[in-house]
């Protein structure tokens, strides 16, 4: 069995299509596979700081979260290490549960990172939150 040449990566905020950090993915040769939602076990927060402004995704207990909009990208495995060098705390890469029951690597936030952050779960995702700030 051959080693995989790509890694599936779910992005939730500034790396989404059309967002300020999306170019970090496209420059690596990453390819958008699909838009979808997480399983309903996450909360999303607008983290302090920026620009670029970023969200933090936190997995929570059953019944405490919501399904959050994400995009799943196919990232060349050979380029993933370079990409990871740019991921700074409190953000990290973990394993996300997707609404269809699958699991993919994706952006998560350390619990300490949500101190002072705004809970934006009610928007269902980063794009809707950003749009609410523009109107």
Number of strands: 8
CATH superfamily: Gamma-glutamyl cyclotransferase-like
Q: Strand-and-helix sequence, N→C?
A: EHEEEEHEEEH
The assigned structural class equals alpha+beta
Name the quaternary structure: single chain
Terminal residue distance = 52 Å
The main pleated sheet reads as: 5 strands, mixed
Per CATH, the class reads Alpha Beta
Strand order of the largest sheet: 2-5-1-7-6
- Low-confidence region ranges: none
Per CATH, which architecture? Roll
In percent, how helical is the residue content? 10-25%
Rg is 14 Å
Present the secondary structure layout.
Blueprint: E1 6-11, H1 22-26, E2 31-37, E3 42-46, E4 55-59, E5 69-76, H2 77-84, E6 91-97, E7 103-109, E8 118-119, H3 126-134
Organism: Tectimicrobiota bacterium
Protein name: Amidase
InterPro entries: AH_C
